Amino acid sequence: MDNQTMRHRLIPCLLFALAAHASVAAEAPPDPLGSVQWARYYDAYFSDGPVTFDPRVRVFAPERAEDSMQVPVTVDARELGDVREMVVLADYNPIPLVLRFKPQRAQPFISFRIKLQQTSPIRVAARTAGGTWHVGGMWVDAAGGGCTLPSEASSKPDWTARLGEIYGRLWPDDGNRQPLRVRMMHPMDTGLADQIPRFHIEDLVLRDADGSELWSMQVYEPVSENPVFGFDLHGADLTAGPLELNGRDNNANRFLARFAP
Amino acid sequence: MNRRALASAAVLLLALLVRPGLAVELDYGLEPERVAPDTYVFVGTTEDFDRDNGGNIVNTAFVVTNAGVVVIDTGPSRRYGEQMRTAIARVTDRPIERVLITHHHPDHFFGNQAFADVPIYALPATRRAMLAEGNAFANNLYNMSGSWMEGSEPLPANATLEAGDLEVSDHRFRLLALAGHTPADLAILDTTTGTLFSGDLVFDSRTLTTPHADVDAWLAALAVLEDLTFVRLVPGHGPVREAADARIAQTAAHLRWLTGTLRDAAERGLSMAETMNLPIPEPYASEPLAREEFVRSVVHLYPAFERQVMSRVDVARP
What we know:
CATH superfamily of chain A: SoxY domain
Number of domains of chain B: 1
Low-confidence stretches of chain A: 1-25
Distance between the termini of chain A: 71 Å
Radius of gyration of chain A: 21 Å
Number of strands of chain B: 14
Mean pLDDT of chain A: 89
Strand content of chain A: 35-45%
Strand content of chain B: 15-25%
Order of helices and strands of chain B: HHEEEEHEHEHEEEEEHEEHHHE
Largest interface: A-B, 34 and 31 residues
Shape of chain B: globular
Helix content of chain B: 25-40%
CATH topology of chain A: Immunoglobulin-like
Mean pLDDT of chain B: 92
Oligomer: heterodimer
Helix content of chain A: 10-25%
Shape of chain A: globular
């Protein structure tokens, strides 16, 4: 091998090494919420794309949680436009990941309730088509205990009779929004309360009558017992017929519901 | 024992007796306001619990009868109860005859420890709720009011009462067993002076709270109060007013506005967090704690309205 060839091979190698080094060493951008957990979550979930803190990711929750077992949260990233995925974290929860939502043909909007173990930021990252994570969030003050307390169902002998009951409604499109709201009977046990194993809904997907997905979601332990979810289907073509919600929990129970527009 | 040892023992004893510091600083400054013959009210602020007010956000009262003092509610802490008792002793040297507790919320009964030597009466459901929820209340109050709560424990009523007439020497009371703000709300009408103690069935100049509310029962209770003949009303929170200015109808109107707003939000498909951010109209927007209490009420009351607009949609798997 002559010097010339050697140099040709060395340069790409060096560039690769430099790039690899840069990606490993990428520093988390400073967190406007001032959470000590941010750098860790940045490395775990968001270091694969540019990250920008963006007021267009709007997070609504009470500043003080009245009930740590049921803290209502609404996330509205409709201003961002083409959102591919939304990740919700409660920074200081023992299980921080709350849910991952892929809006697909639904609006990048979701509401739900969570258990909070202590005062914590609630953080939402919305990934747009170009790969950028747009991050928003707010602090919620909580007396706590939400995650390590047993579900109400776990103390009632008849909860299994209602497991899998689903209530809901699909509203007509008013030209601005088209709400879909769903309430599912499920204990959503975190596994952190004494003697009560982890038991929670894992996956939910909404399809139209042609089998095409409108949205899909991974659900984690911090989502509250008997979850209530809200979506916005404004603009989606629902002419194929009734919508089907399919779900599954970590014990392989399957759930099915149907919504007529 | 030699002289020196005796002296140091005396100093030690004195130090133990005086205990300077906290106790002196944390003074609720309770001043009884005379609202009718024999009748006094400690009027609290229209705020939420915090480390400045120590929970002095509530009205408590006492009636001096010939047989002794009838105390109505004991305040948010042991310290409050003790200071209340001291303040009562400045008005009269008669003994405390009994205590009546209007309902089981902690700002109304956490002073009970200061009255443990006398009968403390409450409705049976109020006593049960004190037993069931007292410890959770204590945690919450320690969080919000800090050292003011030192030494406070939830001491439930030690006796129960029922609706009817109660004669204490020269005062005749009518006890009304109502509900709606909580599962059991006691209203007390002193027919001797025409003073109605409504407890938290009536809120005046402070946004009402709903953690245990049953709105329909509450409206029914307010209708009962509207029909009573009285001269002045002592609400659970807010100023004492003459009957013509009492805020019974206003409390009912507030409840109707609140539930109407929540019903409408549920019918439009709004989420709970969106509902919390709805605009609050006048006159409710100007009341102290308007947004804070609206947000809390959404948490308490919205799930029931949500359920009403959803129907069963699960289907058996093929």
